[in-house]
Amino acid sequence: MCKVFEALKWASSFLKEHNREEYAAELLLRHSLQVSRSEMLMKFREDIGDEQFKDFQKLVYLHAKGQPVQYIIGQEDFYGRAFKVNKEVLIPRPETEELVQSALARIDRLFGKDAALKLIDVGTGSGAIAVTMKLECPSLQVVASDLYEVSLAVAKQNAANLGADPIEFVQGDLLQPFIAQGKSFDVVLSNPPYIPEGDVMTMSDVVTEHEPHRALFAGEDGLLLYKRLCEELPPVVKEKAIIGFEVGAGQSNAVAQLLEAAFPQAKVEVQYDINGKDRMVFAEVGF
Length: 287
Description:
The chain has 287 residues and is an alpha/beta fold.
């Protein structure tokens, strides 16, 4: 038997020895104890039972071997909400929160916050973008699409758990289902796979050995899906529309050129994230 603080100290040291982030120890311990951070601190000098400590050790060993903490505990926070994640979906990143934040600001500026707009999140994965946009701007009519039903199942569960209703979920290849149906949208957002396949050797094994490659990699230059999206976009955007993409660092100029070619009259803007990286490209069409 040991104290809570002793368990945390052991896990932090163990993960550091295995070249993992020490902060993961706290997340795993809180998950194991089913407590918040403040509750954990209040229990710092209380005992952990032997069985509970063994269960905690198993989680720490899993992460030491490379399994992402988010998959171990089954969730990741995004825009202040807990989203369910598993090995079928990409773990939501903080950079994508900035895509959502900027999209909300542009909707407010160009259409008005309460406008009844149609929005699509292409390649929704866990549903982080679609669900957050619906919850932050309830007047939106939100559609979330993905090529894989297993990913849509996670997104649907997140929408239900977080009370984001209604959202229409569509299985299909990028914008093909909506071209076929003659549907159009005021706002199109996407965080598609954008990592060049050659980058796999330089990436952390936590990512490459556990997160779905179909949600990470996109051809030799990482631009494959942006090229397809820009080819498919014209028939599905309304006369006045906002298009927003998350991009990989260094890809923004190429993606901006693709949008400018598809929409010659649009205002296309590269936007930088909080760390000064070119992480977003927006097009304002018809304004």
